[in-house]
Amino acid sequence: LNMMGQRASNTCPVYFEDVVVPKENVVGAVGQGFALAMKAFDITRPEVGAGAVGVASRATWEASKYALERKTFGVPIAQHQSIAFMLADMEVGTHLGRLMVRRAAWELDQGRKPTYYASMAKQFAGDHAMKATTDCVQIFGGAGFCEEMPVAKLMRDAKIYQIYEGTSQIQRLVVARELLEKAAQGARVEP
């Protein structure tokens, strides 16, 4: 498939028709595949979040370098408050995403169910990667819209982080479900 972003990932459809899996090759209990996949997401969502943090970090770096080089009205655009604020938001969001990913990974390392933190990290980092890359393209102006610029590739690559391993909307449902389950039990989810 010709993908919009993450083109180094060889993505293709796989079709199964009339497949019979021998009993000795069945993974887990029959009918429990969905539950098994959801447990796997607890492990993979922090990893996906880490990838999104990497994209956001690169976008912040590229935008910062460009903002120091590009001049308008005789000064680098980094000195314009609107650009400085965008760069600050990009940096803050990237650090927050990194901390959230670390918390999810730490919960996993402690042997605790990381669903709540894994979904928060994946959702926040994925959404922030998209915002950071969009802001990066904005800071680059017309140059950022050119396919030849690395920032256009970053923006295309960022979009998938809001989609795979569960969309950002699904992550919000997972977080809300976990939060409300604890609230119904009279327990508070520790930050």
Poorly predicted spans: none
Shape: flat
Quantity of strands, as a count: 2
The largest sheet, given as strand count, sense and whether it forms a barrel, is: 2 strands, antiparallel
Helix content: 55-70%
Tally the helices.
5
Topology order in helix (H) and strand (E) letters: HEEHHHH
Going by helix content, strand content and strand pairing, the class is mainly alpha
**Average pLDDT, to the nearest integer?**
94
How far do the termini sit from each other?
41 Å
Rg is: 20 Å
Order of adjacent strands in the largest pleated sheet: 1-2
Q: How much of the residues is beta strand, in percent? A: under 5%
What does this structure look like?
Helix content is 62%, strand content 2%. A hairpin with a 2-residue loop joins strand 1 (71-72) and strand 2 (75-76). It is built from five helices and two strands. The chain is mostly helical and 191 residues long. Strands 1-2 form a two-stranded antiparallel ribbon. It has helices spanning 33-69, 81-109, 115-140, 150-159, 168-184, and strands at residues 71-72, 75-76.
Helices and strands in order:
Layout: H1 33-69, E1 71-72, E2 75-76, H2 81-109, H3 115-140, H4 150-159, H5 168-184
Antiparallel strand pairs: 1-2
